[in-house]
Amino acid sequence: MAFERTLVDDVLKQTDIVDVISNYINVIKKGRNYVAVCPFHDDKNPSLMISKDKQIFKCFVCGHGGTAISFVQDYEKISFGDAVRKVADIAGFTDPRLVETKKALPVDAALVPLYSCISDLAVFYQYGLSTPEGSAGLDYLNGRNLDEPVRSKYQLGYALADGKKAIQYLTNKGHSLKTIEAIGISNGLGSNLTDRNAGRVMFPIADPNGQVVGFSARRIVDSDEAKYINTPETKIFHKATLLYNYHNARRTARHDGYVYVLEGFMDIYALSKVGIESAVALMGTNMSKEHIALLRKLGVEIRLCLDGDRAGQSAMMKIITQLNEERLSYRIVNNQNDERDPDDILQEEGPEALKAYMNRLINRAEFALNFYKQTNTLKTMEERKRLVADFVPILIGATNPLEFEEYINELSRVSEFSVDSIKQIVNRARDKTDHDTVGIMAEFHAERRTYKRYQLAERALLTMMLNDPHAVDFYSSRVEYFYEELYRNIANFVVEYKMKNERIDLPSLLSELSQSELAHKQEMQDEITAISLEKTHPECTDQVMEEYRTTILEEREKFYDKEVVNRAMAGKSAEEQGRIAAEYMAKRFPRVKPKDKDK
After folding, report:
1. What are the C-alpha distances in Å from 589 to residues 227, 558, 593?
2. Distance (Å, rounded) from C-alpha 429 to C-alpha 426?
3. Phi, psi of 244 (to 5 degrees)
4. Is the terminal CB of the chain with fewer CB neighbours within 10 Å at N or C?
5. Which domain holds residue 325?
6. Helices 342-349 and 351-358: angle between axes, nearest 10 degrees
7. Contacts of 270 (CB under 8 A, 6+ apart)
8. What is the pLDDT tens value at each position of the chain, 599 positions in all?
9. 138 with 83, same domain?
10. Whole-angstrom Cα distance, residue 60 to residue 40?
């Protein structure tokens, strides 16, 4: 679905690019502009500059640049139309033209019977709680303070102790035994199928769209059986791709600006009771690439809160390493050596204590130092040295002097190296790479080439065209053609844009370029943003433009002559080529004849 250009312009006018990019990556204010670690290449330092004034972004290392819309499009790898809608959503901009006719998601026809069957089973389990036998399950849930609103919201249920009843219910609903086996809830074979979850309280697990795809079943009587049994891997249930409660959290996370990552179902319910709805659970302690992809789509700060025991904290260390590698923004709930989970805190201390606990957030450095202090896992010199090496980037990035001193003193205590020796390492690292000079990054273009005289003239005139409609008219009437292909493509596009607009609006021009079918539009977009963010711009006067035109025409003539000579020399003997070259040089650099002397 293509959008009208006026609609895209309206979205951009109502959008602050800093707010949009902040939804995806961590952004730092630096003078009039903002900076961030670039997500489009393996960036270690803040190479991405965001101009609030111009409403564009530019990476001064990989060259990537554009508008808020193109950032979202490239970051999420989605269509231009979807990116427009997401940007509008972030900006709080509504317009009937943004409404998309919802298309039915493509579903494998072979999976439809499975979805239907497991949905009916979830209803049957909910019904089980209302039966006389189900009162045992109800007592368990009430004992965990899971009242009716919670049970209804999360579709909690009970599997009747007679496992054949669930099978009979499903077959009466028209589901085949083969389908029942395929959803992973049965034991036995053929007509002897029985529900493997019988006698347990049921927690349905949904996919990101809210479709139930599996269950976790909890025993409610003492026995040698496992406390929990989960649906095995099926065609519709893949544990590594699912986060519990994701379908609910995705509705609120963008508004809240965060999502909590927890360890179990009960923690989700506890947070919901105190008004924190943006929360998901791992159903264990391992985080997969698929989990990270789901969290990335939310575009918000991740708040980690796994159990406070040794296993939970060790899992957290592993997860923060993964999140660092994926350059996701996160903080950690500081449990301060409290091994209780959120549900325990709610039961023992009440809602306000839980809310205070969940808002006690620390960064990676504080958590890691606390972890190593408590676990005392640094046994060898190499382990202590590795810890210091891991913390050097954090120390370099600490812009607050008090924060820097606190980190370095704590690191000294944990690693048992002196403060002075750690400072020496940090200073040497700073000398090797400039980690804190965005101004230098803005002036330095790793992708910039050495420009020839005509290229400088074309680039300067192109800069004027991007800022002044008069320069566009001058190009159209007096220059008409740039020899440099990239500049020529940009200039021609600007001319076309000017024909439809009274003035040059940079975000609007870039968004129109993004929607075009031009083969080199990304290269053009990157160059436009690079030119626009340069600090010095030539003065746009007729005299200056004429000087640039003269330079361009002179150089163009030279290129034309060279091409003529090259064509003339093609296929000729070495002697003939030498003669043609000599004639060209004589024409290009004519000798001045000496004047006749008076006799």
Report:
1. 93, 12, 12
2. 5
3. -65, 135
4. C
5. 248-357
6. 140
7. 341, 342, 343, 345, 346, 354
8. 566 778 899 999 999 999 999 888 888 988 889 999 888 887 777 889 999 999 999 998 888 999 999 999 888 878 888 899 999 988 888 888 887 644 445 668 889 999 999 999 999 999 999 999 999 999 999 999 999 999 999 999 999 999 999 999 999 999 999 999 999 998 877 668 899 999 999 999 999 989 999 999 999 988 888 899 999 999 999 998 999 999 999 888 877 889 999 988 999 999 999 999 999 999 877 888 899 999 998 888 999 998 777 777 778 888 887 887 787 888 999 886 788 889 999 999 999 999 999 999 988 777 877 777 666 566 666 677 777 877 777 777 666 787 788 888 888 887 878 888 888 888 887 765 443 333 323 333 333 344 577 788 888 999 999 989 999 999 989 888 887 888 989 999 999 998 888 888 999 999 989 888 887 888 899 899 988 888 777 788 899 899 988 888 887 676 656 655 666 666 667 776 666 666 656 655 555 444 554 44
9. no
10. 11
Burial of 238: CB neighbours in 10 Å, binned 0-12, 13-18, 19+: middle
pTM of the complete model: 0.55
Q: Which two tokens stand for residue 172?
A: 């009466």
- The 8-class DSSP code of residue 475 comes to I
Number of compact structural domains in the chain: 4
Q: Is 3 helix (H, G, I), strand (E, B) or coil?
A: coil
Same domain membership, residue 117 and residue 164: yes
Residues 6+ apart with CB under 8 A from 262: 268, 271, 279, 280, 281, 282, 305, 306, 342
Tell which of 98, 123, 146 closes a domain: 98
Query: Does residue 465 belong to any structural domain of this protein?
Result: yes
- In angstroms, the CA 62 to CA 40 distance is 8
Alpha-carbon Rg of the chain, whole angstroms?
33
Question: How many residues appear in the chain?
Answer: 599
CA-nearest of 599, 474, 459 to 537 is 459
CATH number of the CATH domain containing 11: 3.90.580.10
Neighbouring C-beta atoms of residue 103, cutoff 10 Å: 6
Q: What angle do CA 458, 459, 462 make, to 5 degrees?
A: 85
Single residue among 191, 210, 237 that ends a domain in this structure: 237
Beta strands 33-36 and 56-59, pairing class: unpaired
> Which residues have a Cβ under 8 Å from the Cβ of 2 and sit 6 or more positions away?
81, 515
Question: Which amino acid is present at 290?
Answer: E
Q: What is the dihedral of CA 312, 301, 414, 430, to 10 degrees?
A: 150
